[in-house]
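step 4 of 6: structure.
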Amino acid sequence: AQSVTQLDSQVPVFEEAPVELRCNYSSSVSVYLFWYVQYPNQGLQLLLKYLSGSTLVKGINGFEAEFNKSQTSFHLRKPSVHISDTAEYFCAVSLSGYSTLTFGKGTMLLVSP
Amino acid sequence: SQTIHQWPATLVQPVGSPLSLECTVEGTSNPNLYWYRQAAGRGLQLLFYSVGIGQISSEVPQNLSASRPQDRQFILSSKKLLLSDSGFYLCAWSSDRGNIQYFGAGTRLSVL
C-alpha cells in the first residue's frame, strides 16, 4: 500500500520569503501526486497535480512542485509567500488506475508580516 | 460546471443520537463519491467511497455507514453517535475515470 509523509507539521515564514513544504511518498508502482490547500473551516482546494510528463508542475497562486522519482518526493515551493497563503497544505498520492487518495497529515504554513 | 454541496455546515449532537450528513453533486453523471473525516493533527481519513448507486466500499470499521440512493447523492449516517465521531467531515467527487478529487465545504460535527 502507498503512504505519504509530510515531514513538517508546521512551517513559519515571513511574508515575501521563499518556502518549501516537503512531501515524500512510498509506493512500488506508478503514482499520481497532488497538493491540496485548506483554509480554516473550508474544504480542500486542488493546488496542483502530477499525472505524467514534465516533472515540474505549476499550480494556482504561484505554487509549483517537482516530482523526483528517485527520491520519491514531491516538494511544494513558492518563491515569495503572502499573508493570504496561511493555510494547511496536504500532499496526496493515488495509484495509477485507481481513484482513491492517500493523504499526508498536512503542513500548516504560517506567514507573518 | 460541476459543483458539490454538503450540509449542514455545522452540527452539534448529543452522544447516542443519530446522524445524517448529505452530499450532492451537480453537473456530472456517474461520479465516484467519497467521505473523509479530518481529526485535528491526523490528516484526512477515507471512510467510504462509491463508484455507483448502491455500491459502497468501507475503508475503516467504525460506527458510521454510507449510502448512495441516487447517482449524485451520498449520505453518511450513524444510528448512535460516539464522542469519537466528532470531527470535520468532507465529501468529495471525481469523474469515473479521473484521479482528481474535488471537495465540498465540509461539515463540522461536535458530539457532546
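step 5 of 6: annotate
 - Chain B has no helices and eleven strands.
 - Chain B touches chain A at residues 6, 32, 34, 41-44, 46, 49, 51, 59, 88, 90, 92, 94, 98-106, 108 (CB under 8 Å).
step 6 of 6: archive
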